[in-house]
């Protein structure tokens, strides 16, 4: 798979929605002999199209990641209860929280239309498997389709849908879990074991993800059956990332000494640095993405502007302490053992 795309490094740059995966990060990965993925999540189709054009102009291999609609609806009562709990923090920053649940599909159809009209080398999908017709159409347009899975049963569903390869994501990964069943937090299975479980049921190419921060992690994943790995947290402090300054600082701050999987920020399980927000709100947060994402969004944005790391979603995998302030190329080649 990698050689078909002209990739020589078995360490790829994962898509990180919300800002960290800037186009220049994707370009830097490609120029290093790797490949990065533009994060299509939360972007308008127009913005995504602009970023595709920009990266394509740099002449590097790249992919685009999309969130597959997999909404978890919330009752008005549960939504109101969570909103009421958040109001004191929102009042602190003078922000208004949505009065009613906001449900959307992140412009799914429009983004698929964009990728069919203007195909990219690779399309990666997360949160769920789309209808097989969508996969077939993307492949017919010339794109390789890669599906994120968190278990062997999910891998079987993805293979049945006709995808070309799998990103096998362990629970150690930072940010959102790609689980198809967000009401259940994925078990903490080490990535090598998860890769072996998936490999036992499929011959599709595998890409390992989750908790990879050192060369030994890369080697262990490849020994377990992966063709390559993809890293996100390891790139958060790089020069080319769009990670906010307070987020970058928190990754190496001794006060943030643990990560937790929480639904408090978005209503889907996601791994972040433990902070005031996760401690206070995770026990009461409903499993309701994207309603919770839209509910907490104004508060998180205000907290980020104020550099209030107690209320920011500080996405981070278990290996966050190994993230370095250096160039993307340096991180990827170092992890691949080619520095």
Automatic annotation (TrEMBL):
Sorted UniProt keywords: Detoxification, Flavoprotein, FMN, Monooxygenase, Oxidoreductase
Reactions listed under catalytic activity: 3 propionate 3-nitronate + 3 O2 + H2O = 3 3-oxopropanoate + 2 nitrate + nitrite + H2O2 + 3 H(+)
Protein name: Propionate 3-nitronate monooxygenase
Pfam families: NMO
Family per similarity comment: Belongs to the nitronate monooxygenase family. NMO class I subfamily.
InterPro entries reported for this sequence: Aldolase_TIM (IPR013785), NMO (IPR004136)
Organism encoding this protein: Prauserella alba
Gene Ontology MF term list: monooxygenase activity
The organism's place on the tree of life at top rank: Bacteria
Cofactor(s) required, per the database record: FMN
Keyword Flavoprotein attributed: yes
């Amino acid at each position: 798979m990698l050689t078909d795309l002209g990739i020589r490094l078995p360490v790829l740059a994962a898509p990180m929605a919300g800002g960290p995966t800037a186009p220049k990060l994707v370009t830097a990965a490609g120029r290093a002999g790797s490949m990065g993925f533009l994060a299509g999540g939360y972007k308008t189709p127009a913005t995504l199209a602009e970023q595709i054009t920009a990266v394509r102009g740099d002449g590097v291999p790249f992919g685009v990641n999309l969130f597959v609609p997999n909404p978890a609806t919330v009752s008005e009562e549960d939504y109101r209860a969570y909103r009421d709990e958040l109001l004191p923090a929102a009042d602190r920053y003078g922000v208004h929280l949505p009065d009613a649940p906001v449900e959307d599909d992140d412009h799914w159809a429009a983004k698929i239309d964009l990728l069919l009209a203007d195909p990219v080398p690779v399309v990666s999908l997360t949160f769920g498997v789309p209808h097989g017709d969508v996969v077939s159409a993307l492949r017919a347009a010339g794109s390789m389709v890669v599906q994120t899975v968190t278990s062997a049963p999910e891998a079987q569903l993805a293979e049945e849908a006709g995808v070309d390869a799998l990103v096998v994501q362990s629970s150690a990964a930072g940010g959102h879990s790609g689980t198809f069943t967000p009401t259940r937090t994925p078990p903490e299975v080490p990535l090598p074991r998860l890769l072996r479980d998936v490999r036992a049921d499929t011959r599709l190419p595998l890409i390992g993800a989750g908790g990879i921060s050192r060369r030994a992690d890369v080697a262990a994943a490849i020994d377990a059956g992966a063709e390559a790995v993809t890293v996100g947290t390891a790139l958060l402090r790089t020069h080319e990332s769009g990670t906010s300054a307070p987020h970058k600082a928190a990754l190496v701050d001794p006060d943030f000494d643990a990560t937790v999987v929480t639904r408090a920020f978005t209503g889907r399980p996601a791994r972040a640095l433990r902070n005031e927000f996760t401690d206070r709100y995770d026990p009461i947060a409903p499993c309701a993405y994207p309603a919770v994402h839209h509910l907490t969004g104004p508060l998180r944005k205000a907290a980020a502007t104020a550099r209030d790391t107690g209320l920011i979603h500080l996405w981070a995998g278990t290996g966050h302490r190994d993230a370095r302030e250096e160039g993307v190329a340096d991180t990827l080649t170092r992890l691949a053992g080619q520095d």
